[in-house]
């Protein structure tokens, strides 16, 4: 049943496959984010309590959701690399870490800029904000470990163990707003099927979220290909491939 | 459209600074990530190409030396 997956464990096949996906993801990103952001900035009504600062929501929430989503993806890749020694899983985990780190940084930064007019402070050491900051440090640690060893298999192992240990932080972030008293508001959109916001605010959010998903898929594909090339530099298929590539 | 004028749009009802700061920094981070990822790709391909050229040169040099040695030994045999 899952045999169709087998060829994609071959670096050459997945290199060319992700290469075909890249133009689609880049186009979709451009279209969806343009629509979503114009919608969010110009046409969404201002929040009755938060006014126009509510428009930050359309960057903050997609980035925050994906910062956790990418981490889970990276941890699954790390697990399959540690258990089944799939080299491509290592490459994809290394590709995801910097993208997740940027998503976390965006979530933290837009959160601070939204908190200032809404709560009256840029930062507070409460559960949600602190656990998200720890997520950023976990990402930075994983990136550092991937780059700390000349031997990429060893680097993948070390980084993989750190990412698996760090998974404990994900439910802490997710449920921090329920477990502890915090300034951060409860979840608005992740309640399945029943978002607690009006549809004219919800639809542009979905467009922005989808745009962000396409963006991270695009960049992860680019970075995955970089990792595959660097790790297979001595293989015949890479040698043949780079002969025919013009680099400006 | 929620705003009646451009000035209104930029002011964002007094929250303009925070909204534009968020959108500006996020755009810069996203763009920076894409640009570094693409330039990494070019750098890696260039590195592999350069290594190949170096190997080619070394191979050629070794070949030249072999030919020279052969010629030399031939000359010595002649004389």
How would you characterize the overall build of this protein?
The complex is a heterodimer of chains A (248) and B (79). Chain A has 248 residues and is an all-alpha fold. Chain A is 74% helix and 0% strand. Chain A has helices spanning 11-43, 57-84, 87-119, 127-148, 152-166, 169-179, 199-231, 236-243. In chain A, helix 2 (57-84) packs parallel to helix 7 and helix 3 (87-119) crosses helix 5. Chain A is globular and about 60 Å long. The mean pLDDT of chain A is 90. Chain B has 79 residues and is an all-alpha fold. In chain B, 87% of the residues lie in helices and 0% in strands. Chain B has helices at residues 6-11, 16-78.
Content of β-strand of chain B = under 5%
Helix-strand sequence of chain A: HHHHHHHH
| Average residue-wise pLDDT of chain B | 90
Main beta-sheet strand count, sense and barrel state of chain A: none
| Uncertain parts of chain A | none
Count helical runs of chain A. 8
Assembly state: heterodimer
Instruction: Kindly state the number of beta strands of chain A.
Output: 0
Largest interface, C-beta within 8 A = A-B, 43 and 34 residues
Number of strands of chain B: 0
The whole-angstrom Rg of chain B is 32 Å
Helix content of chain B: over 70%
Report the end-to-end length of chain B measured between terminal Cα atoms.
98 Å
Low-confidence parts of chain B: none
- Sheet with the most strands, sense and barrel status of chain B: none
The radius of gyration of chain A is 20 Å
The helix tally of chain B amounts to 2
Strand fraction of chain A equals under 5%
Order of helices and strands of chain B: HH
Structural class designation of chain B: mainly alpha
Shape of chain B: rod-shaped
Summarize the structure.
The complex is a heterodimer of chains A (248) and B (79). Chain A is mainly alpha-helical and 248 residues long. Chain A has helices spanning 11-43, 57-84, 87-119, 127-148, 152-166, 169-179, 199-231, 236-243.
Features:
heterodimer, A: 248 residues, mainly alpha, 8 helices, globular, B: 79 residues
